[in-house]
Amino acid sequence: MPAPQRERHPRPVGPVPALGQAEATLVEHYPRLVRLAYLILPPRLGRHRRVLAAHGVVQNALPARPAPIKQGRVPAPRDDRDTPALDWIVRRVVSAALSYEGGAARWRRAVRPALPAVWGLRLTPRIGGADELALEQQLATVPAGVRAAFVLQHLEGYAPHTAVELLAAAGVPDPEAVLRAAEALGPQDGTRAGLLLGSVEFDPCTVQARPTDLLRRRHWRRWGAAGALLVAVVLTVGQSGKDPVSPDLTGRSGAGVAMVDPASLGRAPGAAWQSSSRIDFTVWPARGSLVEDRALLGRALRAWARPGADVRVSAAPRTGTGPTSAPPQLLYAGQVDDIDVVLFHDAERIVRYAETAGHPAELTFSRADNADVTTAAALVLVRTEHRTRFLFAPWVAESTTRDLLAPDSPARPLHVGDDGVSDAVARPDLAGPCTNWPVLQLRSSERIAEKHAFLLTDLGDPSPVHLTYTPPPGSGAPARQPREATSSAALVSWSHAACTLRSAAGGGVRAVNNWVFAEQQLPENAGQAEWLCSRADTWNGPGRAVVRFQPPTTAAREPGTLIADARDTSYCSRFNQHLLADARWSAPSGTPYLLAAGSRAVTRITVTGQVRADGTGTTLAVKAPPGRSADISGVLSTGRTLGAVH
Question: Angle at Cα 70 formed by Cα 69 and Cα 74, nearest 5°?
Fold first, then answer.
């Protein structure tokens, strides 16, 4: 049952303004309020849906009934505060926009009854520059609460304590932590961040209008007439059963009927990627020997619109399997190893349809929103128990393979056909002994500015996983950023961590970064150890961080000592770059030590409890007999206290 309108717009804490005053205030500040809602709404809705949802949120933000406004303390977005009515409406808009965060069913229930509704047009904000696109991609990777905190500070001008109060009133858990996460977003210059948020990229009141697919709408009308005739026949004959062939126009397949015609499929020009400012799946041309096979494409589209009992459907975690709202883009249709494979892209998902003689058809869904030159560089076409064949992006100019457990071995050439299909590549063994770890090493074309080599590995999802590396902190001021894992140091580091990737298999992982957050000279001249955090980011947002201590005696292929394994966390991401960890270690003499290390912003480490020590810098070592308890804390350069991860 759709949620009532009042549940999507929870009443904020504070005095309720008079209805007439609230309406006048809303109309006066309408563009500002709609922009605020648009920026907080989940990017997975797509630009068109976000525009409509933002207008719907604001237009439904009026109080349910008139009430006299009373005096009371309500946060104001700026020192030159407007009226208490505006403050109340801002809170209501923020709460309503935050409520769209959640599963696909939740936001569909929320969007369906909201106005305005648009038929026959797609509305999108105008495209901004590279800085706006980068900020949009950052905002898409964080929870709605973090987006709200960032926008409230940099667009609305809220002071930090006032933003925390508003977020708490909107039901955001731990708003102080959310505010800290928002500090790492966007440009560090607040003025610059405000200018970007105020650009046309994020203005849902200044939009471009384009038609939806005209052929698809024609088919809607034809199917509507056919459906009406079918209903009349059924009512006349008195049948109560369902025709297994005709579309179910009252159920899920109603949306599927709109997309079952192969003529409605989008196809990118072959050279679109060479002149596009976006290098992702949207510029993949349609390739394969069966791209004109209307029968195959029709079967694939019908299976997507209404999968029957003879279609096996699977999806990556938190990925919807419903029909698309617009004609999808065709990426590939061809026969690979006696399997007919079709790949679609609907702006948010990759959909793979496969037919094998004598077996049920397969339909696989995975997330693909905000892909880039690396994460949109390859897709799995056919996967067997031991080998995989990929379809590469048109900008992949060089393809090789290498063993991640043999960092000194050179990369080996990989043959790729004119249609972008690779020869079979060995798969990592996700269950047996970890004796090798095959990866792809690709290089992008010199025709795009992103020309560089990068690593991808197959973890069982339709998209291979991008592997990156962050080197130890340098002596300079700027923090090190993740980079491609193709250098000698990166390959050596990944040779220890490769086998730990098994735990991320099939989890909808987009990229894994191996970060050396500290180096430590061990006592008794025992050499230099490394402290690492391997972070796996998923397509749908949540991440997992594994912290390890790696002494210099760690054997090849061994990951070192596990310190912490945190799930659904921001640890070791760009939004939480501060880390403190500790480990027990025995020197070659047998003397036991407690070791601690922090990331680059840690200036002091303190040990309390049955073991006591205090020192400046990012590392500390103290003798610690077994069984004695110790509590570790650190101080950042900002003065904030940091606890150890566990």
Answer: 95
> What are the tens digits of pLDDT across the range 546-568?
999 999 988 878 889 999 998 88
CB 440 within 8 A of CB 389: no
In terms of DSSP bridges, do strands 602-609 and 641-643 run parallel, antiparallel, or are they unpaired?
unpaired
Measured CA to CA, the distance from residue 432 to residue 261 in angstroms comes to 45
Mean per-residue pLDDT over the chain, rounded:
83
In one-letter notation, the amino acid at residue 221 is R
Distances (CA, A) of 101 to 74, 220, 286: 25, 31, 34
Q: pLDDT tens across 155-211, in order? A: 888 888 888 888 888 888 888 888 888 888 877 666 677 778 888 788 888 877 777
168 CB contacts (<8 Å, ≥6 apart)?
Answer: 175
Distance CA 292, CA 334 (A): 10
3-state secondary structure of 565: strand
CA distances, 88 to each of 20, 96, 511, 601 (Å): 14, 12, 41, 39
DSSP annotation of 416 reads: B
- How far is residue 386's CA from residue 123's CA, in Å, rounded to a whole number? 46
Cβ atoms of 492 and 503 within 8 Å: the answer is: no
Domain positions in the chain are 5-210, 241-366, 579-646
User: Do 3 and 49 contact (CB within 8 A), yes or no?
Assistant: no
Q: Sorting pLDDT into bands at 50, 70 and 90, what band is 71?
A: very low
Burial class (CB in 10 A: 0-12, 13-18, 19+), 103: exposed
Q: Rounded distance, CA 354 to CA 333, Å?
A: 10
Q: Quote the tokens at residue 77.
A: 């977005």
> Letter for the amino acid at 523?
P
The DSSP annotation for 64-129 comes to: SS-----------SSSS---HHHHHHHHHHHHHHHTT-S-HHHHHHHHTT-S---SSEEEEEPP--
Query: Are residues 85 and 17 in contact, defined by beta-carbon separation less than 8 angstroms?
Result: yes
Q: What is the rounded radius of gyration, in angstroms, for the C-alpha atoms of the chain?
A: 27
